[in-house]
Amino acid sequence: MVKLYDLSQPLNQETPFWPLYPPFEVKYIKRKAEHGVNAQYIMTSNHIGTHLDAPVHFVTNGKTIDQIPLEWLYGPGIIVDVSEVGDLGIITPEIFEKNAKVAGGVKDGDILVLFTGFSRYAWYQKPKPKGTADEERYIHMHPGVLKDFADYMIKKKIHLFMVDDPSPDHPLNLPIGRFLPRVYTKVRAAAAKKFGGEAKLAKLFPDDDYQIMHNYPFLYDIIHAENIGGQIEEALNGKKAVRMTIGCFPWLFKGGEAAFARVVGFDFNK
User: Fold this and answer.
1) Is the pLDDT of residue 270 over 80?
2) How far apart are the C-alpha atoms of 93 and 114, rounded to whole Å?
3) Domain map of the chain by residue range?
4) DSSP H helical segments within the chain, as ranges?
5) CA 54 and chain centroid, separation
6) Using 50, 70 and 90 to split pLDDT, how confident is the model at 73?
7) Euclidean distance between CA atoms 176 and 124, whole angstroms
8) pLDDT digits (tens, 9 = 90+) for 24-65
9) What span, in angstroms and rounded, lies between the C-alpha atoms of 265 and 33?
10) What's the mean per-residue pLDDT of the chain?
C-alpha cells in the first residue's frame, strides 16, 4: 500500500497573487440552465498558487515547462522541517543538512522540500482568532535561502526543490524588502532588528543578490515549486525530516515559463 499526501495549495479567485502581478480571475461563460452545461473562463498569471518555475522564467532561451524531463519531476525526495529559523530567517545548508539527518540525510539528486512552517499562514487556513491564516505575514515575512544554498544544491546534483511559502528568495532579495510600496520599510526594519542592523543587511543581501535564487540556480537547470502546503505537516508527522517519493505534475505547457502544479508525496512504507 502507498499513502498519498497532497502537498498543494488550493487555487481560486481568493488566492493572493504575487505583489505587482495581476490576480486570478474566473467567471462562468455557460450555465446549465441556459446552455445545458457549466463552463468557466479564467485569466491569470502563472505565478499564483502552487506552481513550478522553469529556467526560462529568468534565463534567456532557458528550458520551458515542456522541456523539463519527467525524471526531474518524480523521484526520491526528502521533506525537511526548517521552521525554527522563523520570520525572515535564513535557511542555511548546515541547518538543512542537520535536520535531514534524522531521515538518513540528503542523497545526490534528491527532490528537496523545505517546510518553513509558513503554509500555516496561507490564505486557505482557518481565520483568526482561532486559526492561523495571515496573508501579510505569509507574503512579507517568510524565510529564504541565499546563494550558499544554491551552491549546495549544485554540489548535490539537485534538479528540483520546493518551499511552502511564496518564494525561495528571502524577502530582502525581493521587491517585498526592497521597493514594494507600504511594505518594504517595515520588512527591512524587522530584518535589521533580527540580524543586527543595516550594515549587516548590506552584507547578507547585497544588491547583486536581488532574486538570486531565481537568477543563479536556473543557470544550472535547478528548478523550484512555490506555494506548496496542503498535507505537508501530516506527511512530516512531527518529525524533523521524512523521506518519500515526491511528484510535481505541471500541465504540459509548451513554451511555458511556469505552470500550475499538483505536488504529491508518495509514502510506499505505509
Assistant:
1) no
2) 11
3) 3-9+47-267
4) 32-35, 93-100, 135-140, 147-155, 175-178, 184-195, 198-204, 212-215, 232-236
5) 13
6) very high
7) 21
8) 999 999 999 999 999 999 999 999 999 999 999 999 999 999
9) 40
10) 97
